[in-house]
Design goal:
alpha+beta; Double-stranded beta-helix; 3-stranded antiparallel β-sheet
Length: 347
């Protein structure tokens, strides 16, 4: 492994900011001492380990666990497990599930439920969160090869974790709003990877009583709402996704960088391997170009589609976070955005 890299470029960081919830530097000793006495899970505070370098994953064959699942889901829905829909079309809240005890068959059925409902919220997962990083990595390996973030903080010894951490830094917030009107941005996770994640897990260790919700859009329904003519045009298009801006910003912020920037070619419309649904795979964060279109044409297509997502409240679901909840998303058919809870309270 090559050593981690810090760029010597002294120029000003680009206006695009990834600072909110995604710091680039180790926490100060003073802050660490203060927060470690308050947090229930100090082992999940973000670290930036030296000497790590992540080469791009080679393409691998993926066998979706949902294809093995019993469609009736008898192993998942047993022992008093209850399901409540978030909306009629997407999102399900499960209570009574103990993630740490699920059998392989139940994990497969959970995968199928995620494919069908796009989002599954699992309440009261304290025991799963207490199992620790090693167990959680092994749990998620059931759902595929794990991604490794190129610039952000992770759990010590486990680069597969992406830690979202608010430290109450008001200066950081003020800097962000010098250039931005809102903290929200519709995004796919690491869509620049050759094989972006299909299944994504988020666990909440601490959160405010209100606020901080996550809004999720169903990109298969966004596709279905388009006219057949527009669908046919999108079906022919491919886009270049890139991590260039992310890497450049981290370097100029004097942060640790663990990977070279990558450009990847993906179809604008993807076909889901389990449900067969067609969904739009485009965002405003990682897209470098749409192949074959001029810049203004590509911008027009992207802005039109993102406007439909922003206005499409009838194909969105809002996840309200509760302490010790775990949420699993289908990364192939959803876009999401987070809503910052407050600007003066660490979480």
């Amino acid at each position: 492994m090559a050593p981690s890299r810090v760029d010597d470029d002294k120029s000003e960081a680009p206006k695009t900011s990834y600072d909110i919830n995604v710091p680039y530097h180790a926490l100060s000793e003073e802050y660490e001492k203060r927060i470690k006495g308050r947090t229930e899970f100090p082992e999940y505070l973000p670290v930036w380990e030296e000497g790590l370098w992540h080469d791009d994953f080679p393409v691998f064959e993926f066998h979706d666990p949902a294809l093995r699942a019993d469609k009736k889901k008898p192993n998942l829905f047993q022992g008093g497990v209850a399901a409540v829909p978030i909306t009629p079309r997407m999102g399900t809240v499960l209570t009574g599930v103990k993630l740490e005890t699920l059998s392989k068959e139940a994990k497969d059925e959970l995968a199928l439920l995620i494919c069908e409902r796009k989002i599954v919220v699992l309440r009261d997962q304290l025991e799963f969160l207490k199992t620790g990083p090693q167990f959680q990595v092994e749990f998620m390996e059931h759902y595929g090869k794990l991604s490794q973030q190129p610039v952000t903080g992770a759990v010590k010894g486990f680069p597969q974790f992406h830690i979202i951490h608010r430290d109450g830094n008001e200066e950081e917030i003020e800097h962000f709003f010098k250039h931005k009107m809102t903290t929200t941005i519709w995004h796919h996770d690491v869509s620049y990877e050759r094989q972006p994640p299909g299944y994504i897990m988020l666990g909440i260790l601490a959160c405010p009583d209100v606020g901080g919700d996550t809004v999720v859009a169903d990109m298969s329904m966004a596709y279905q709402r388009l006219s057949p003519v527009y669908q046919q045009m999108l079906d022919q298009l491919r886009a270049i996704h890139t991590s260039e801006n992310l890497i450049a910003h981290a370097k100029r912020a004097k942060g640790v960088v663990r990977a070279d920037p990558i450009d990847t070619n993906h179809p604008v419309v993807r076909v889901h391997p389990v449900t067969g649904e067609r969904s739009i795979f485009l965002n405003m964060e990682w897209i470098k170009e749409i192949i074959g279109l001029k810049d203004l044409e590509a911008e027009s297509v992207t802005r039109f589609l993102m406007d439909q997502v922003r206005m499409g409240h009838d194909f969105q679901a809002r996840v309200r976070w509760e302490k010790h909840s775990v949420v699993m998303f289908d990364g192939r058919t959803t876009l999401r955005q987070f809503l910052v809870a407050s600007v003066d309270e660490p979480s």
